[in-house]
Design brief:
The protein is α+β, with helices and mostly antiparallel strands. It is 48% helix and 14% strand. The chain has eleven helices and ten strands. The longest helix has 28 residues. The protein is globular and about 60 Å long. The relative contact order is 0.13.
């Protein structure tokens, strides 16, 4: 969720002049993502992106992103370029938040559920390339996500409680309360159902690899021909089940995935394309839908934020994810069987 900024236009100009020596004449707010983002135009007509990260992202985390994008750029991948501060650092702090400036990348962005088959294949290709390159990443600065996050009864039990705790808040909402309560109760029942089924608990040997961490269509800048020109925002990079990143990135880009549905043939195509650049195991293919289902089903994101802050866009996001859960809980076995037909 985007945190409210204390930046004004005058303060941005002042801080950028102080830390970078740049005179800024125009500032434009860019919506999208969880950071506060601004397009800057300097007096000499150069363009930049200023990003004010959420307070949870420390300077150490930003240095990790810098290490990653420098490493990937040296591999030939098109990624953002940080601008160095006058004091030699690549970020500064303002009101306890980390702030960076990158060179602006000309291009277009796309929304979720907007990709055609060519764009699906391109997304899968670059994800495979990134994961393959990061196997050689020389720094020990990425977090590791434990597989227990996706395979333990404790996670399910805690998630049930999180959803139950939101119901009293939803009862106070006279506009969307009834639909939220229905969604929360549906998710609670689905959590109980997958716990009883227990398939997800067998996914203990899925592959954990270094990856982007938030790889999806919103992190792509496209050229005028609809091809990926650059991949941005590696601040969430870490080691995690790679099938989670595959499932999520497919889900977010495919135009057939609106209303929570998957096009299973397109998902199979996406995985096959990924496999041209990085490896998966049969275990990965078997449990891909279950890993993704547990993560999406366990999260209250969207509902919690709406009930506390009234953000209707995040409510819609939470509702989209609930529809994904409804689809996956009915179709996970079918998806798993189709994926297992892939040679790997």
């Amino acid at each position: 969720m985007i945190e409210k900024t204390k930046f004004t236009e005058d303060k941005i100009k002042e801080e950028v002049k102080k830390h970078y020596g740049l005179e800024i004449k125009d500032i434009e707010i860019i919506n999208g993502g969880s950071a506060n983002i601004y397009k800057l135009i300097s007096n000499d007509n150069n363009k930049y992106i200023l990003k004010e990260f959420q307070s949870k992202f420390s300077g150490k985390t930003i240095l990790k992103e810098i290490n990653i994008i420098n490493f990937l750029r040296n591999k030939g991948l098109s990624v953002p370029e940080y601008v160095m501060c006058l004091d030699g650092k690549q970020y500064f702090e303002y009101n306890d938040k980390t702030v960076i400036i990158q060179k602006f990348i000309e291009g277009e962005t796309k929304k979720n559920y907007s990709g055609d088959k060519k764009q699906l294949l391109e997304s899968a290709k670059y994800l495979g390339i990134i994961v393959n390159y990061l196997e050689e990443y020389p720094y020990d600065d990425m977090f590791t996500c434990s597989i227990e996050k996706y395979t333990s009864d404790e996670i399910i039990d805690k998630s049930i409680i999180k959803h139950e705790n939101l119901i009293p808040l939803a009862k106070e909402d006279i506009i969307h309360g009834k639909e939220i309560i229905k969604d929360l109760n549906d998710k609670i029942e689905m959590l109980k159902q997958i716990k009883k089924d227990g398939t997800y608990k067998k996914a203990t040997n899925v592959t954990i690899k270094k990856t982007h961490g938030d790889y999806n269509v919103l992190q792509f800048i496209y050229d005028t021909n609809g091809k990926i020109k650059s991949i941005i925002d590696f601040v969430s990079a870490g080691e995690m089940p790679i099938v989670w990143e595959i499932a999520r990135s497919y889900n977010y880009i495919d135009k057939d995935c609106k209303n929570g549905n998957f096009n299973i043939d397109n998902l199979v195509m996406y995985v096959k394309e990924y496999l041209k650049y990085s490896k998966l195991t049969k275990e990965d293919l078997k449990y891909l839908p279950y890993i993704y289902l547990v993560q999406v089903l366990s999260s209250t994101y969207g509902y919690k934020e709406y009930l506390k802050n009234g953000n209707i866009d995040l409510l819609h996001f939470g509702q989209e994810r609930t529809n994904i859960c409804r689809y996956l809980i009915k179709n996970a076995k079918k998806i798993s069987e189709k994926l297992l037909e892939i040679e790997c």
